[in-house]
Amino acid sequence: MSEYWKRRTLSRRNVLRGAAVGGAGLAGAALIGCGGSDDATTSSSSGSSSSSSSSSSAATSAATSAAAVQQAASAATQASTASVKRGGKLTMHANHEMRSIDPHFDTFPAATWVANSVYNRLVKYSWDLKELQSDLSELPEQPDGFSYVFKIKPGTKFQNIAPVNGREVTSEDVKYSIERQMGQEGSQEDLGKWGHRYYFNEKLASIETPDDHTIVFKTNKPYAAFMYYISNPWTVVVPREAVEAAGDLTSTAVGTGPFILDQWTKGVSWNAKANPDYFAKGVDGKPLPYVDEIEMLLVQEANTAATQFINGDFSAYATDANYVERVREGRGDATEIAVPSQFGRQMRMPPTYLDKVTGKIMDYKSYANAPEGYEGWQSYWEAGQMFDDIRIRQAMVQGVDKQQIIDLALSGGGIPMYSVIPQQYDTWALTEEVPGAEFDAANAAKLLQAAGSPAVEGPFMWASSSAGSVADQVGEIINQQLGSLPGVNLTLEPRETANYYDVTYKYRYFMSHHVPLAAAEPSENLQSYFGRNSTYYKIYNPDIWDKIDAQDAEVDGPTRQQMVKDVQKDITGFFPMKFVYTPYIYQFYDPKLKNYRMSLDRYDGSQIVEAWLDS
Amino acid sequence: MNRYVVRRILMSVPTFILTVLFVFMIIRLIPGDPVEIILSQSPYTTQEAKDSLRAYYGLDKPLYEQFVNYLGQLVTGDLGESTNTESPVTEELRSRLPITMEFGVFAVVIGLIVAIPIGVLSAIRQDSWSDYLSRSFAIFGISVPYFFTALLLIIYPIMWFGWAPPLRWVGPTEDPIGHIHYMFWPALLLGVTLAGSVLRMTRNQMLEVLRQDYIRTAYSKGLRERVVIWRHALRNALIPVITILGLQVGIAVSGTVVLEVLFNMPGLGKFFLQGIFNRDYPAIQGTVLVIASFTLLVNLFVDLCYAWIDPRIKYS
Question: What is the CATH code of the structural domain delimited by A3-334+590-613?
Answer without folding.
Answer: 3.40.190.10
